[in-house]
Amino acid sequence: MAQRIVIDPVTRIEGHAKITIQLDDAGEVADAHFHVTQVRGFEKFVEGRPFHEMPSLMARICGICPVSHLVASAKACDELLAVEIPETATKLRQILNLAQMIQSHALSFFYLSSPDLLLGMDEVPEKRSLFGVAEADPVLARDGVRLRQIGQTIIELLGGKRIHPGWVVPGGVNAPLSEDARDAMLAMIPEGLDIARRTLEWYRTVLPYFEDEIATFANVKTLFMGLTNAENTLEFYDGPVRIINGTGEVIADQLSADHYTEFLQEAVEPWSFLKTPFYRPMGYPDGVYRVGPLARLNIVGRCGTPRADEYLGLFREQDTQSSFHYHTARLIEIMYGLEKVGMLLREPDILSKRTRAVAEPNRSWGVGISEAPRGTLLHHYEIDDNGLITRANLIIATGNNNYAMDRGVYEVAKRYVRGGSLNDGMLNRVESIIRAFDPCLSCSTHAVGQMPMQVELLTPNGEVVEVLKR
Amino acid sequence: MTRVVTLKIDDIDATGREDETVLEVALEHGIQIPRLCALEGLTPVGACRLCLVEIEGTGRLLPACTTRVAEGMVVKTNSERLRKYRRMTIEMLFAEGNHVCSVCVVNGRCELQDLAVRLGVDHIRIPYLYPKRAVDASHERFALDPNRCVLCTRCVRVCGEIEGAHTWDLMSRGIDSAVITDLHTPWGESDTCTTCGKCVQVCPTGALFEKGMAVGEMTKRASFLATLAASREDGR
Fold it and tell me: ipTM score here?
């Protein structure tokens, strides 16, 4: 008898999602899907609004990564103004964006995924949370909280508040950096670097326990996409797009975000509100790609900062196709982010008072691209003669990974889930592949392993055969 | 000759000229009364109903901005009943427009927002109407977002009384009421607008704003009004 397993909601992710696993008559996994069950409507309700409102409006897409949207949105607005923003403004935005990446990566790794990594996939659900981690390894838990605090404090020192700062505006940023704020930020960097190193060293020791998961998470082959720069190092703020294939071969390079519709297209699947972008020349689904930490480390020559480059070797000696190594890449990016923030803060012109270009709209459309913690993020706006938005298109970082997450769920379910002998550890592995991508499906759910999870085994008629509750 | 009258406002013995309003005398005695439409230098119209006060011997509540003081008057400006009505009025203002403070150009410097905070409005108990209102950004320097308009008519009055252009006016009735430029033509096409910006500066919310402002960046400066009015009286 065919059965269907539903995991709803998926826990320890940002936003709301559901997983269904379809079993065949023999109790084997026949298919599985990752459903994003919400629709937000931002692209539609911003129509008719003045474009100067866009950064603050779009930041509301998310409470965890508002900065990413602020930056991509402001960059699209810079294009509408058709100005080159002051160099200091670019650097300050870069610092803000990196601080966002640091705090978001810390949230993903420590708060959401470290319970699986420290306590194991089969730990009882009551323990499998940050509180369980705090009990088993207080230093690890405290490190995670502190690292997130460092990122958030930098955001606050720059933008005036931690969530939804109004500081990033079309044309630059609306206030220069003070010397005190810079010094306060610089003072936190060494501690952050110590935490990053300590965590990477610990993580190195637990990796061998997850050989099976690493191999299973690698069964989805896709392209990788991300931003690059002239130095061929990690790039979070700007730069042309590069796409490589599974063997590391560059298949497209120096792509300009302005022409994104020529190389990206979005597919719609009936099981999800989230669209699936793909590399247009290769079609769907052959052209699907992954973005985010794993993709970024795969497309660049090196990180570009000394400590992060030390650990790049740890990443490169692994199977860099495996989505499990999003975790590894995330830790290395934290290291990079802290180093890079330090470098930018030491730039001689960082305290310059010239941080904003003022202009009227000079173009009818603009595309802003940047790297959010979860990957490449793109905002595209069109305006009328009065500067009111007529059309908005957003390609959200998480959306780029939609196909890989969906197929990842299938691969992991196929490997671990067996009908008739359901257990919690199996299902947690299915969720953990989603967590590896750190999807930000909308905004924060404010739930750390506390949301109720109910898994139901259903007959094709919808009859409940077995219920597993958390 | 104007007589001086004595009255009681919130148990304070007050004096004022008989041609003054309760609001003016209260302010002279350091008593603040919430208001959105009244502004020194403009003719009072009693539109917003936030300055309603209780006057002994009168059953109904009267707007302090349009009620003249009288000898022996006993006024209460801050009773529980008044606070309740004011909160309700603010809630209705929020419910009938689309006031999204978080993305508004005057966030943190808005008279409506300040009043809501001061009066303890932490929830809107009536359903939002979510009206569909288009932004008019056709003017080269300023824009009108009717979603944030509370129909205080300060713009109408400052334009007519001070600038003398009378570009602004009201149209329709009830829930359909709206401020318009000229005969409901786009602001940018107005023949009468002098682009002086007075309407923008006196607007208590973000309904009228300077273009190019991002969230929280606009500060309204209505203080020019009193200076301007005084200068004119002096014949300077």
Answer: 0.90
